[in-house]
Amino acid sequence: MTALAGRWNFDGKPDAGRACANMLAAQAIYGPDDSAQTDMGTIALGRRLFRTLPEDVHDNQPLSGGEGRFAMVADVRLDNRDELIAALRIAPEQARELADSAILLAAWARWEDTCFDRLFGDYAFALFDFAQQKLVLARDPLGNRPLHYHRADRFVAFASMPKGLHALAEIPRQPDEERVAEQLALLPETGPETYFRDVRRVEPGCFVTITPTSLIARRHWEPVRKPVNLANADAYAEELRHRLDEAVRVRLRGAGGEVGAHLSSGFDSAIVATSAAIQQAKRGGRVVAYTSVPREGYDGKAPRGRLGDEGTIAARTAAIYPNMEHVRIRPSGRTPLDNLDRSFFLYERPVLNLCNAVWSDGINDAAKARKLRVMLNGQMGNMSISYDGLTLLPELLRRGRLVKWLREGRGIVRRRHLRWLAVLNVSFGPYTPTPLFRWINRVLEDRNATIDVYSALSAARREELDIEKRARARGLDLSYRPRTNGFETRLWVLRRVDLGNYNKGQLAGWSVDQRDPTADRRLLEFSLNIPEEQFLANGQMKALTRRAFGARLVPEVLTDHIRGYQAVDWHEGLEAARPKLLEELGRLEDCGPAATALDLQRLRQLMADWPEGGWEKVNVMVPYRLALLRGISSGHFLRRASGSNA
């Protein structure tokens, strides 16, 4: 990975180089291996390098191309490097001494903005076109690499992370209080706004073209519905397996003899880890698979229908592969509040799930101690390789295919995937009036998923910002009713959260490059267009996933009746953090932005009404694990970002 920075002065002042140097220095943690910049007076581009690929030894950015027309800095891993080399007719002996950034620049020089159709991998880049006097900023389809910018009347500046921009006197660090409120309400991250005022992001799958008089943002990745028609169910399974294996293979570049992988009791991480083991075996390599498990002797209950300790099933999966080492990660005594300041520095955004951060940090600690360079995960698997196909049910109703709907519903219940009430909820929920849907969930399902329960956002702030209207504008039903269109639903979920800052922060904090094969563009585009009847067939949810990868997994994973629940002992860390919680609440009460955003009275009441047990119950878990901890996380961000003395 690479940390980028640059500035273009529209007013002709020749001090862009000094500003660029300051921005690079502020981002040193994200690029400790090398620093370089090009200073052209009114324009300066620079980068700090973090070597994660073999070819990074040849990285000599900033780059010049197109016979001097273009200057570029890029944070990039090209997964189709060889294809691009062939298409660009670069000689093999020359290609061996080219970093991915140089190949990217050659692609732009040949195809300009039509090159996005040919780029596969993770990237963020900035390119200056001297002939057209424009700056282009771009990110990959899912935004795995971050890129931020600030546009003013006199200049434009860009940096990988906000702290690069905050190195400039013209951009003081202030929180965007509206964006933080939206996050508390779990609104999708759409639009260029970030968690800092006057700092914008290039949205995933977009590129921004900036001139002294204009700024235009365009989407370069917009999948269209083109149903895949293969010969039979086995053909779909074979193609899905092939595409996943290829997505894993290209992400092994730079990993060396050992690669890390998350491994749970579910499909996604197991599929990724086992694919990596198969491919590492061909080159004499190994996989170190990490599973988060409770502390020794923990005997607390898991939520209904959930598995609290995934270690046993994960170990059985690992045992199939001689070159896979299984490592259980147990709680280290760290509480969810211990790393708040460090997380603020690394990610520059509120952490959504503080409980998950505890075990995720534990895995990263172990990987760093092992000196692993690459960690594979399956974060987007539910939207690609293991989609459940449930949106088929309301679609069957809409099309009047009642017999098939009944057959699929019966099969789902018979296979113990869902109860009949849940099947009916998924099927009729999209067509049910909101008040009735909420009543059904509250009374019949004992699930009160309303914003005033799961969020710490104050009622006054919700009303002031009209959060309900904002949610509707972003395609979010705050009742969380099921959806009907699988293609649109999955694409919406993929775009809901921007992971770029997290990926950059984890590399800086642990020297571990996070890579997700299930987010591979080619894999996603194929998966999105598979007929839903392949994912839900004869009452079998994730039917295609079972066909494609069943031979690689243990029976316990394939049955999939009980999903894993990570950090089942989360409440013990929360108990240990009670003094810190009270201390932080006191500080938030003295911080204006936090006091405005949060229902601090409710959070105080939660502390006063501390449960003596029942942490596995929804009516306890939601207010404490979600509302309280997310409120603390967002409030802490507001306090630090605003420079409060509280």
Mind explaining what this structure looks like?
The protein is an alpha/beta fold and 646 residues long. It is 42% helix and 15% strand.
Report a brief summary of the structure.
The chain is of the alpha/beta class.
List keywords for this structure.
646 residues; alpha/beta; 6-stranded antiparallel sheet; 19 strands; 15% strand
What would you call the shape?
Answer: globular
Oligomeric composition of the shown chains: single chain
Q: Quote the beta fraction.
A: 15-25%
Span between termini: 36 Å
Largest beta-sheet characterization: 6 strands, antiparallel
Low-confidence stretches: none
Strand runs, count: 19
Task: Report the structural category.
Answer: alpha/beta
| Radius of gyration of CA atoms, rounded to a whole number | 25 Å
Number of helices: 29
Widest sheet, order of strands:
2-3-1-9-8-10
Topology (SSEs and partners):
Layout lengths: L1 E8 L6 H11 L7 E6 L3 E7 L13 E3 L4 E9 L2 H7 L4 H4 L4 H12 L9 E9 L4 E6 L8 E4 L3 E5 L2 H4 L11 H8 L15 E2 L4 E6 L2 E6 L13 H18 L7 E5 L4 H16 L3 E7 L13 E2 L3 H9 L4 E6 L10 H8 L6 H16 L4 E3 L15 H7 L3 H13 L5 H9 L5 H11 L6 H4 L4 H7 L1 H7 L12 H9 L5 H11 L2 E3 L5 H8 L3 H4 L7 H7 L5 H5 L3 E2 L5 H7 L1 H12 L2 H6 L2 H9 L9 H24 L5
Parallel strand pairs: 13-14, 13-17, 14-16, 15-19, 17-18
Antiparallel strand pairs: 1-3, 1-9, 2-3, 4-5, 5-6, 6-7, 7-11, 8-9, 8-10, 11-12
